[in-house]
Amino acid sequence: MGRSSDGRVTCQHPFYLRGEWYDKMSRPPDLVGDIVDGIDALLLFSPSGAYYERATDLDDTDVVVVATENAVGAEEFVELPLEFDDIRERIRFGVEGALSEAVVTDGDELGCAAPLFGEDIDTVTRTRADESKQSGVYDLFANSRSDPGVIRDVFEVVIELGQKGQKGKPVGALFVVGDAGKVMNKSRPLSYNPFEKSHVHVGDPIVNVMLKEFSRLDGAFVISDAGKIVSAYRYLEPGAEGTDIPKGLGTRHMAAGAITRDTNAVAIVLSESDGLVRAFKEGELVLELDPEEY
Amino acid sequence: MLAPIDGLTGPQFRSVLAVGVFFAGIVFGYLVGRVNKRLLYAMDVDDAVEGTTVERLARRAGSTTVELVAKFTSWVVYVVAALVALDVAQFSVRNPLWYPFLSYLPSVVLAAGVLMAGVLVGDKAELYVSERLRSVKLPSLSVVPLAVKYTILLVAGLVALSQLGVAVNALLVVLFLYVGAVVLFTLVATRQLLTSAAAGVYLLLRQPYGIGDRVAIGDHEGIVQEVDVFVTHVEAEDREYVVPNHLVFKRGVVLVRE
C-alpha cells in the first residue's frame, strides 16, 4: 500500500474484484502497444537472427526484413542499397521498397522496428503504405538502367567527396550514371578525356585514390550501366525545357535534372554551395542527403 | 653398423643405450609434435580447415585437426625411436619377418599424410566452390562442388596408393579419361566464350569503338552502350542488341558517322 500525493491510498498489487483479478499497475508495453496494434505488416530493419526468429512466430502479420543484406534468410526482403543514417530516410526507403516489391499493398498499416541508437532494434514506429506519397527513392536504385550496386558505389564516391572536399574547401561534382551512349551523344568534351582507354569502374579501390583528382575536374562524369567511368570533362547539352527542379539550385543541378529527362540516366550531384548530395531521375529530384551524416 | 658402438661401450651397455635412445626419441617426438602444433596454428591452419568434415569428425572425437596432425607426427617419431632402440639392443628386428614392415614404414607415413591433406583440401575446395555458387540460385549446380571434392580425393587416393606400391595403372587410365573428358567438354562448350573473350581483350585494349559511338555490327546498328570482355551492347531506337565479341571480328564493325 502506498499513499499518493493527494492523500488517497493506492493499491500497488493486483486485487480481486467481482470474480476477476485486476492489475492496477500498467506496464510500459500496455501504454505504447497501440503503436503496433492492428498492423498488417511489420518491417524489421537489420534484425539479428534471433530477433527475426521471434518475429516469424507472429500470427496474421507479415514480416518484412529491410537490410543491406539478407543475413537472416528472410522470405520477404527489401535490400537497402545504403546504410541510411537518417532513420526517417531508411524507413521511407523500406516502405517504398516493400510497396514496389508488392510485399505490402497500398493502404496497409505498417509497424517498423529499427535500430536507432545502437546495433539492436530499439525503436518502434508506425506508418502507412501510401502509393501516392512515393518519392521514387527505391525506384532510383531498383529500377534504373544501371545496376543498383553501381548507383550505390557512385553515391559512396560522391558522399566521400562531399566529406573531404578539396583542402577543406567544398567542391561540387556531377555524375551521370547509366545510358552512357546516349549521354555521350548529348554532351561534348570540355577537354581531353582523362579516362580515355582506361578501364576504371566506380567501386574499384583505385577510385578512392583518384577522388582528389575528381574534385579538380570541371564538367560531368559519365558512368556506364556496368559502372565504367567513361568520361570526365563532359559539358552536358540536353534540352532544358520543362525541367522542374526546386528554385534556388544552380546550373549544375539544372543540367543534372535536364539530362535525366532527356535520357534514361540517373544524375547524382554534389552541391558546391550547400554541400548536399542530390539525385535526379526523369528530370525530378528524388533524394537529398547530407554527406556529413554518413 | 653396431660394431663401433660395441667397441666403445661393450655389449652389456647396449640395452642401456637402447633405453636412452628410446627415451630421447620420446622427448624429441613430443617436442616435434609441440613445434608442429605451434607452426600449424601460426599458419592459420585451424581457420583454414574450419567447417570441413575432417575437422567436424575430429571435434566429435574431442580433438581438432591441428592436434591430430601434431599427434600423428609425434607418434611417427615414437615408432621410429622404438625401432632404432630395438635395433641398437640387437633384438631380431632384421630378420625377414620384420623387413617388409620396416621398408614399408616411410611409404605408409607418406601415404597417410597425402591422404589426410587430400581429404582436407577436397573438403576445403568443396566449401569454397559452393560458397562461390551460393549467389547462383540453381539447385542442380550443387553437383559441381561434389565433383571438385571427389576429383581431389581421387588424385590424393591415387598418390597414396602409388606410395604404397599398389598397382594403380587402371585407376590412372580412369583419371586421365575423366580429366580429358572434362577438358574436352569445357573447350567445346565454351568455344564461343573463349573466342569472344579473346576478341574482347583486343577491343578493350585498342578501343576501335567506344561508348557513345554509332556502329553497325552485321545488321545491328546503334549506339554502343557498353563493351565488356564477352559482349558489346549496341542500342538502337527501341531495342538493345547484345552482340558477342567474336561476331565483331567475324562480321567486322562499321563506324557510322553522320
The SSE string of chain B, one letter per element, is HHHHHHHHHEEEEHE
Instruction: Work out the helicity level of chain A.
Output: 25-40%
Instruction: Report on the biggest sheet of chain A.
Output: 7 strands, mixed
The CATH class of the largest domain in chain A is identified as: Alpha Beta
Give the uncertain stretches of chain B in residue-range form: none
Please give the number of β-strands of chain A: 16
Here the CATH topology of the largest domain in chain A equals: YojJ-like (1
> Average pLDDT of chain A, to the nearest integer?
83
- Structural class of the secondary elements of chain B? alpha+beta
**Unreliable residue stretches of chain A:** none
> Using CB atoms under 8 Å apart, which protein chain pair has the greatest interface?
A-B, 15 and 13 residues
Strand fraction of chain A equals: 15-25%
Describe the protein's topology.
The complex is a heterodimer of chains A (294) and B (258).
Chain A: E1 2-3, E2 9-10, E3 15-17, E4 20-22, H1 28-32, E5 41-45, H2 49-56, E6 62-67, E7 77-79, H3 87-100, E8 109-114, E9 123-128, H4 137-142, H5 148-164, E10 173-177, H6 180-185, E11 187-189, H7 205-216, E12 220-223, E13 229-236, H8 251-262, E14 266-270, E15 277-281, E16 284-289
Parallel strand pairs in A: 5-6, 5-8, 6-7, 10-12
Antiparallel strand pairs in A: 1-2, 3-4, 8-9, 10-14, 11-13, 12-13, 14-15, 15-16
Chain B: H1 3-9, H2 14-42, H3 45-48, H4 53-60, H5 65-88, H6 99-132, H7 143-163, H8 169-189, H9 191-206, E1 214-217, E2 220-227, E3 231-235, E4 240-244, H10 245-251, E5 253-255
Antiparallel strand pairs in B: 1-2, 1-5, 2-3, 3-4
Helix pairs in contact in B: 2-5, 6-7, 8-9, 9-10
